[in-house]
Amino acid sequence: MDEYSILVVEDNPDDQVLTVRALKKASRKSQVIVLEDGQEALDFLFGSDTQEPCKQLDQLGVILLDVKLPRVNGLEVLKKIRASTRTDWLPVVMITSSDEPAELVEAYRLGANSYVTKSIDYREFEEQMAVLARYWLKVNKVPKADSVRTL
Amino acid sequence: MTRHWQWRYWPLKAKLLFLTLSTSTLGIVLVCASLIVVENKSYQRQLESELHVIAGILAEQSAAALVFEDNNQLTSILSSLRRIETIRQVCVFDASGGVMSALNSEREESCPDINYAQPMGFSDNYYRLLQPVTLDDETVGHLYLISDLKALRAHIQTFIFIALSIGALIQLGLVFVALKLQRVVSEPILALSGTAERIAQEHDYSIRAPVSGQDELGRLGSTFNDMIETIQQQNRRILESRDSLERIVENRTSQLSLANKELEAFSYSVSHDLRQPLRAIEGFGQALEEDCEGQLNDTGKDYLRRIRAASVRMGNLIDGLLVLSRVSRQPLENQRFNLSDMLQEITEELNDIHSPLPTDVCIQSDVWLVGDDRMLRIAFQNLLENAWKYSAKEEKRVIDVSATSEANYITIAVKDNGVGFDMRYVSKLFVAFNRLHAPSEFSGTGIGLATVSRVIRRHSGDIFATSDVGAGATFYVKLPILPDGH
User: Fold this and answer.
1) Which residue segment(s) compose the domain that B140 sits in?
2) B444 in the same domain as B342
3) What is the CATH number that goes with domain A5-150?
4) Which candidate from A18, A97, A119 shows the least CB-CB separation from B272?
5) Among A15, A96, A122, whose Cβ lies nearest the Cβ of B286?
6) Does ipTM exceed 0.85?
7) pTM
8) Which of left, alpha, beta for B433 (phi over 0: left; psi -120 to 50: alpha)?
9) pLDDT at A1
């Protein structure tokens, strides 16, 4: 079986590079799609004037969604993902640099599957990314898109 | 049971009426009684003198008849007395005491024997009189006369009736006058007391007592009104200043909450925006070390290590500041918890993390506190971490936590056998970013004790420390003993 691909929505170019590096280190064969902000993520999932919606959602093992994003923030993206039957089953892991209890509660209320505070220590951060990649890409299973449609 | 019959519970009206009426009744009764006594006496005297005159005339008229023992003459003389209703009996005695003639008003009644002493004068509803009958200075017989006192009684009864009637009229007049007086005296007082009562009950200082006249009562009323006016003004001033105080407090509160919100936004951005570059520094540092290690010489590697250590320190600083800001603004949620258990947990965590040094920890058991346990955990975590850290260079770590209660305070002492500090700098101990040791000796952010102090002060407590350089330090946390759930 092919490895799932992984969608990373992260605005910080440094964190993009570091995240991809850490994920690739843990799961070499997985494809990592990187998007810059919330709007790009919505366009990727639902399509836009210039862009077709992603056709192979069931190839996505997980979405790593940063909470603080330009234009449309992570929690709003999460809300939209959960509001559509096309995407509401997708595993979403909220990633944040801050440690705000209110944000944590809100994320779970909106239906996040997981909530991870990026460690300040890069070694720990790398470990976090490795755990996420191993679990969501290798351990966890997501349904096939057609089975989601028929049920 | 109230005792409203007691004099002090009587209303003023009743008191005044009662006093007026009882005084006047007493006066009228005394006057009537003395008048009746005087009248009785004078009427008696008048009756007595009248009877004496009658008896004298009779004696004169009957002297000759007595001497000549002319009974017919005597009888005719005596019968002239029939017209005088009050005379009940008249007896004429001769010199030896024999009855010569008698006149009885109603039924036959024998004349008394005058040789025996008879009570004379007023007695038993009668007046008795014995008049000697003389002719040429020689007693030729006696005249005995009894008068009843019906007329006297009737007269006195009439007199009493008139006196009582006049007394009753006077009483009626007095009641009328007393009622009038009340209107003049008690009504302003009653109105005043009613006003005072209403003011006391309703706390309405705009009520004024009615003022009538310029006499003492009128002045009392106006003085009372002046007093209420003063109270009203003072009240108004108090209310105004309270309102303005409230406005100020409201203003300050909104400013404060605004500042708090700004602080929150600031700390969010600190936590998010300052961490990102840090992680990048750290991450690329590691990437550099891992991916390009062969291209760096020892100096390069040393620089890299320093960059990474600095980023770790920076991260700790940010974390510390975040905790400090959080314990400063989070609302307290007080509850009762077992401090001993909490300290035990912290100790176990510290034992897991720190270098394996023989450690002897003694924590007094069953110490309970009321407070925000999350914040106090942060505080005691910091204190214990310090105790661990500054005793890391001893041969054996000895830490002792004990609690003592006094009055309304509980004091928890955290004692270590570490390096201690110089008491000259004790005032700098709890100020953020002030450190008493070089980073090369002991790492630290200088925020920990500031955070502890903030937590303790927010619990209305106090923190202080004592130490001798090289002989360990003791930190005392003094907290008020709160009732459970407050």
Assistant:
1) 12-177
2) yes
3) 3.40.50.2300
4) A97
5) A122
6) no
7) 0.49
8) left
9) 47
